[in-house]
């Protein structure tokens, strides 16, 4: 109903906190707009869940539970798939909201004894995913550095029978580089802070994160707001619920430890300008943990393989060539990842415009309700710039990748300037030099 969309933000009064109005949630149509309150407000309790269960969407003040309940009931009555899309800038509260929704289903859906295992797995996969995919950033101490797609499957009676969690676009570059004030993924610090003595000894690791280059670049390895030791306990017990065996864990932490050892390798330049690794201490650990021969590993790190049609040629890596692996390539990829993330957000904005602004305004017109048109920027022009067939940035990139001859950042940039340079929303910073020029 259109009238609901025009309603003012609801003042959500808690009986036990009479003067604490939570003006942080409101609706636009059936879309919930939520501002991060950054404080525990006691509104995520079992009694609140019961309150929202089976109640008409607009009868109670806006809540993430109303969204969850509405989706569930619509699914049961229409017998089709429903999705809840959570979007917002970093630190907006998306992860917390998704956890609240999962908890809501876990508590309110009909459950059989045997299905409790599936439920626990779904809930406990979160701490593990967060350990490997979340990190402290300047905006959020527990920032998800990956996209998450979760689905819960229900049977015809509305009983949850299973689910999937798919993660995508993880920010890999964070493993080797962190900005000032930021950390690597939590798991590295958790392992050092909480890992058992024998495990650390087996992995060749020390407790102090400052000893590892990949953990200390941001100068905030130890952060008072994060309790790595406690979090390790949660993650460890979650591992057993989601069926990780001791052998799985050995392999997993072997890889984690190898990354830390890899970061501490010191490359030097010999007389011919080639890279060498004089101190092979770390090499020995990595070789042991990954199950490879140290000499093979050493060669892989100091030589590069060029495949020229049928011939394979091994040349010594120059120090600048190594930068390619540990620095430049990473920045380069990071730029593309960011481009994909930005494009995804532009598409979500389109969805929002279609589902809320346009749909609501069309409904007002249909019902003859007087209203003042709200001006908004329609970002379709930006989506077109990226995705238009034969003309958009993705098509140009595609063309640049398959055409004969060397394709570099600079040649791609020139193509962009030529094809979309005059577009009102296209802007570039001309690089001082291209990465390709460095090689
Ligand atoms: N509903 C809430 N009530 C109280 N505190 C909250 C709520 N939502 C979020 N917070 C606080 O804000 C922090 C950041 O929220 P969250 O991690 O959910 O953001 P996000 O949108 O997932 O960020 P990112 O995109 O960086 O992963 C949380 O760690 C928590 O301290």
Write a short abstract of this structure.
The protein is built from 17 helices and ten strands. It is mostly helical. It folds into four domains: 2-171, Kinesin; 174-244, Arc Repressor Mutant, subunit A; 268-317, no CATH class; 327-438, Methane Monooxygenase Hydroxylase, Chain G, domain 1 (Up-down Bundle).
How would you characterize this protein structure?
By secondary structure, the protein is mostly helical. It has four domains: 2-171, 3-Layer(aba) Sandwich (Kinesin); 174-244, Arc Repressor Mutant, subunit A (Orthogonal Bundle), CATH 1.10.10.820; 268-317, no CATH class; 327-438, Methane Monooxygenase Hydroxylase, Chain G, domain 1 (Up-down Bundle), CATH 1.20.58.530. It contains 17 helices and ten strands. It has helices spanning 2-5, 46-52, 64-78, 94-108, 115-133, 186-194, 197-203, 213-216, 228-241, 246-263, 281-290, 294-302, 319-367, 380-387, 393-402, 409-420, 435-438; strands spanning 25-28, 31-34, 134-135, 143-144, 147-154, 160-168, 268-269, 275-276, 303-308, 311-316. The strands form five sheets. Strands 1-2 form a two-stranded antiparallel ribbon. The protein has a two-stranded antiparallel sheet with strand order 3-4. β9 and β10 (311-316) form a beta hairpin. The chain is globular. The termini are far apart. The model is unreliable at 1-21, 318-333 and 432-439 (pLDDT under 50). Bound molecules: adenosine-5'-triphosphate. Adenosine-5'-triphosphate binds next to α4 and β4.
């Amino acid at each position: 109903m259109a009238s609901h969309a025009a309603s003012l933000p609801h003042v959500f009064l808690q009986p036990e906190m009479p003067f604490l109005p939570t003006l942080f949630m409101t609706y636009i149509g059936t879309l919930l707009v939520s501002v991060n309150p950054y404080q525990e407000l006691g509104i995520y309790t079992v009694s609140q869940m019961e309150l929202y269960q089976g109640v008409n969407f607009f009868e109670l003040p806006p809540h993430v539970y109303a969204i969850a309940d509405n989706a569930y009931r619509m699914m049961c009555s229409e017998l089709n798939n429903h999705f809840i899309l959570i979007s917002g800038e970093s630190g907006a509260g998306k992860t917390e909201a998704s956890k609240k929704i999962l908890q809501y289903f876990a508590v309110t859906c009909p459950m059989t004894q045997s299905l409790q295992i599936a439920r626990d797995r779904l809930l406990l996969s979160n701490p593990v995913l967060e350990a490997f995919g979340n990190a402290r950033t300047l905006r959020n101490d527990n920032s998800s550095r990956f996209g998450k797609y979760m689905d819960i499957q229900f049977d015809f009676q509305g009983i949850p029978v299973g689910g999937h969690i798919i993660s995508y676009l993880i920010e890999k570059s964070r493993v080797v580089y962190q900005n000032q004030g930021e950390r690597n993924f939590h798991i590295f610090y958790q392992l050092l802070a909480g890992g058992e003595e024998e495990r650390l000894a087996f992995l060749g690791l020390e407790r102090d994160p400052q000893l590892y280059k990949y953990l200390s670049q941001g100068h905030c390895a130890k952060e008072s707001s994060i309790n790595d030791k406690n979090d390790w306990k949660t993650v460890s017990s979650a591992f057993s619920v989601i069926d990780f065996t001791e052998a799985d864990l050995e392999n997993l932490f072997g890889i984690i430890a190898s990354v830390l050892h890899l970061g501490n390798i010191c490359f030097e330049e010999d007389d011919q300008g080639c890279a060498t690794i004089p101190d092979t201490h770390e090499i020995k650990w990595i070789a042991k943990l990954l199950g490879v021969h140290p000499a093979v590993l050493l060669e892989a790190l100091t030589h590069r393989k060029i495949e020229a049609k049928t011939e394979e040629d091994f040349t010594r890596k120059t120090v600048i060539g190594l930068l390619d692996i540990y620095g430049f390539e990473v920045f380069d990829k990071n730029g593309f990842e960011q481009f994909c993330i930005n494009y995804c957000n532009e598409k979500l904005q389109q969805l929002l415009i279609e589902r809320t602004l346009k749909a609501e305004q069309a409904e007002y017109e249909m019902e003859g309700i007087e209203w003042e048109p709200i001006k908004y920027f329609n970002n379709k022009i930006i989506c077109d710039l990226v995705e238009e067939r034969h003309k958009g940035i993705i098509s140009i990139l595609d063309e640049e990748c398959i055409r004969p001859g060397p394709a570099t950042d600079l040649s791609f940039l020139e193509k962009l300037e030529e094809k979309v340079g005059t577009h009102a929303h296209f802007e570039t910073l001309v690089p001082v030099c291209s990465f390709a020029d460095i090689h």
